[in-house]
From TrEMBL:
Residues 126-331 form the Fringe-like glycosyltransferase domain. Belongs to the glycosyltransferase 31 family. GO terms for cellular component: endomembrane system; membrane. It is a single-pass membrane protein; Single-pass type II membrane protein. This is Beta 3-glucosyltransferase a. It is found in: Endomembrane system; Membrane. Gene3D superfamilies: 3.90.550.50. Keywords: Glycosyltransferase, Membrane, Signal-anchor, Transferase, Transmembrane, Transmembrane helix. One of its GO terms (molecular function) is glycosyltransferase activity. InterPro entries: Fringe-like_glycosylTrfase (IPR003378), Nucleotide-diphossugar_trans (IPR029044). Its main location: membrane. PANTHER family: FRINGE-RELATED.
Length: 361
């Protein structure tokens, strides 16, 4: 039997979830609430979230009358919370303790409506290292600063890897693709890499991974994840951002966290005539436009990260076994790699990525 109190609650606007908060203002949230970022809560999608019908109705009317104004979609969970909050005119997120990200076999989950699996999907054996070609974008001014970090951390896990620069340095070695360095965008360099991947100048592999020289990545974890995808299909995988999505825009794989392409995806991109409008155009966004025009999907994985661990909520990373991070700014990149990405043992499909860590894939 419904009481007057229950009826009142049903007709209220509710925004429910497991709250996350930023400890410091972060670039992925456009430095929102810079004076005190902890005051704003947003939901951890991994725990599930819910909105009441009255709120859905109001938001539907709002979207119809006032389309989303933001050009970029970077972190959807934060942006959804901002849109619902509506500069204080809408509800804050209400914490629901039954929405959990605890491992499903934990005794703490007896009160939980949602839990997380402690192991990655059993898609098969990890792909072989010989099936992945790694392309690192660099330039002469970072040969002595960033490249040594890669060599001290994850380079040893790559079977096929080349460094692409504006200067051929035999000590690394780097390959000059004949594209001048640009301060931003790097579209010309990335498309030269795609063309080289299909040219016969490099080994014929199933997968291409393109990273920046300040990307930190676990190739062994990527091998596990790629076992879930068919390289004969046009797969484009990484951290998905969006541009102008409410106005018919497109999604794209943000470059800093690493862009993964199946060979078939590269073939279709280049066969389509897709190209840069300038060498310094944003490579990831140009690729996103081309994939959208071709009707090819852009696949998101939350395990790739465009920014540093410090730029993400602590509780968000607590249930991940991440694949990548990006940027060396104000951090010790080798320490970050050792803490977040280093595996002592090569993962097997029958094992968790890390026996002591919770996994989100």
């Amino acid at each position: 039997m419904l009481t007057s109190c229950h009826v009142l609650l049903i007709h209220q606007e509710w925004f429910l979830g497991k709250p996350l908060q930023d400890e410091e203002s972060t670039i992925i949230h456009h430095y929102a609430f810079a004076e005190n970022p902890t005051i704003f809560k947003y939901p951890d999608f991994a725990a599930a979230w819910a909105v009441s019908t009255p709120l859905v109705v109001r938001l539907a009317n709002k979207v119809r009358d006032e389309p989303l104004k933001s050009d970029f979609t970077i972190d959807l969970k934060h942006e959804v919370a901002l849109y619902i909050w509506d500069n204080g005119n809408g509800p804050h997120l209400t914490a629901v303790p039954e929405l959990c990200t605890e491992p499903e076999d934990s005794p703490q989950t007896r009160r939980c409506a949602t839990t997380l699996s402690t192991e990655p999907p059993l898609c098969g054996e990890p792909v072989n290292t010989e099936d992945i070609f790694v392309a690192v974008k660099t330039c002469r001014k970072f040969h002595s600063e960033r490249v040594p970090v890669i060599k001290k951390t994850w380079e040893k896990d790559a079977f096929f890897l080349e460094y692409y620069s504006d200067y051929a340095d035999p000590s690394i070695p780097t390959i000059n693709l004949g594209v001048p360095n640009t301060e931003r965008g790097h579209c010309g360099k990335t498309f030269a890499i795609l063309q080289r991947f299909l040219s016969g100048a490099v080994p014929d592999t199933k997968w291409l991974l393109v990273v920046d020289d300040d990307t930190l990545i676990s190739l062994s974890r990527l091998q596990v994840l790629l076992s879930c995808y068919n390289p004969s299909e046009p797969v484009c995988l990484g951290e998905r951002y969006g541009y102008g999505l409410s106005q018919g825009g497109y999604s794209y794989i943000t470059g800093g966290g690493g862009m993964v392409f199946s060979r078939e995806a590269v073939v279709r991109l280049l066969d389509s005539g897709c190209k840069c409008y300038s060498n310094d155009a944003p490579d990831d966004m140009v690729l996103g436009m081309c994939l959208n025009a071709l009707g090819l999907p852009v696949t998101h994985s939350p395990l790739f990260h465009q920014a540093r661990p410090e730029d993400y909520a602590r509780d968000f990373l607590a249930h991940q076994v991440p694949i990548s991070f990006h940027k060396h700014w104000n951090i010790d990149p080798i320490a970050v790699y050792n803490k977040w990405l280093k595996d002592d043992l090569r993962p097997r499909a029958s094992d968790g990525l890390n026996d002591n860590a919770k996994t989100e894939l």
